[in-house]
Amino acid sequence: MRVKPRLFFQIFMCTVLVSLSACGRSAGSSNDEAGGQNSKGAPERAEISIMTITPSTPPASDDNVIKREIEKLTDSKLDIQWISNNVYDDKLNITLVSGEMPDLTYISDPFGPSFRNLVKQGAIWDITPYLKDYPNLQKGVPEVAWELTKMEDGKNYGIPRGRDANDVSFLILRKDWLDKLGLQTPKTTEELYGVLKAFAEKDPDGNGKADTFGLSAGIDTLTGTFREIFTGVTGSWKEEGDGLTYAPFLPEARESLAYLAKLYSEKLLPEDLLTLKTTQVRDYYIGNRAGGVIDKTGTGPKVYSPGLKKLVPSYKEADFYPLAALNGFVPKGTGFNGILAIPKTVPEDKLKQILKLVDTWLTPEVSAVQRFGIEGIHYRVENVVKIVDPDKLLKDNASDFNQIVNSIDPALNPPPANPELKELEDLRSQVDAQRSKENVPDIGVGLYSPVAEKLLPDLEKRISDLTAKIVIGQEPLSAWDDLVAKTKSDPQFIQATKEMSDAYRKRNGH
């Protein structure tokens, strides 16, 4: 019996290539039909599409060396759509409306109306039941972030993109000025007043001129920070009884306005307070004019110290001195910046692959890749310390990947490069430890009220305008009393407060 040439050729190719699995399937079959395995019987790499924000131009390419390393360590193939942060919200809204979300999508505002509607429609995975199987999702994201990103039904519809909850903007003082004037670190607003007055009147820069003042800050940051300090409330809502009350209308908020008006009238604040931009606020400190600012502790070495050291060679990194608290209060950060959501168009098996991807990405081994890069390319090791080439790391867009997964593991922080930075790091650790005992979270984050959503933007603008005028003396405190009384009797405001209280009770299972 003759073997037909075509059959003979098939047998020959199977023998030579040892492609038994290929010969056992028709030409039209695929790995998916074979159970999603490759020719060696191993599971195929997870192919996952991602859409996220980027500040870089251009963003990381598809064959980026950092991306390839992350893919290797997470056993995945990532199709990343990078969108400029300038247009991201517009692009996101179009994507959400289209119903064609990538497998993993960065949601900048998890409580915006578009995303809320998708959740209500059942179009987004509730990941709450799965979290117990992925321990790094709990370790790599602050607990407060998981709590504050819950929807009104008490469930999580995305993975929070982690941030250090202790790393908040708060008061920073010049420690060298405190020491020179023999002043103690203030712990109350009354003590702070004495410090700021000394900074303005006792010539802390030693030039014999009356050219210094106490605290540099923009008007909104200033009034918001001190309202929280006086009320002891982070954000706009305080728990009272079994409901919520609007914190800006508490009596202590009025006291904060009187306090700030006094500081301004005594020239302890910048005269051009109302028009200051962020750069101008910082320039007063950098220019050796102001004894304090409101900012994050991590901004010292990068933003403030280089310029100030040119004017004051004796200035040290640890002279950028963060207060742990005032009046026993410090705000607590939300612990997140947006969430990563997974649409219901993704089947459950792939959902688990995505959760596994992020869980693995949050391990120190993988997260270190975007923090330090790859040995021999972006860093070298000397005495067990990674010496990073920042220019090479920047060129390869390493920080872009923080816009997908961002670990808060302190073990990933590089060691301080010199004794000055070591002293600052030790100080920051002490402050963080103290803040973790006293900080207060914003309980209003994520609470939903249809009436509040419409009412609050206009109310907050009126509050902002009036508080600014009161601080600089253009309006009396009685104008504040009038606004509070009128608003508290408004049926819309009463309904908004009721709805916010209901949402708070629901989220907490009451």
UniProtKB/TrEMBL annotation:
Protein name according to UniProt: Aldouronate transport system substrate-binding protein
Keyword set, alphabetical order: Cell membrane, Lipoprotein, Membrane, Palmitate, Signal
Leader sequence segment: 1-24
Pfam families reported in the protein's UniProt record: SBP_bac_8
Xref: PROSITE patterns: PROKAR_LIPOPROTEIN
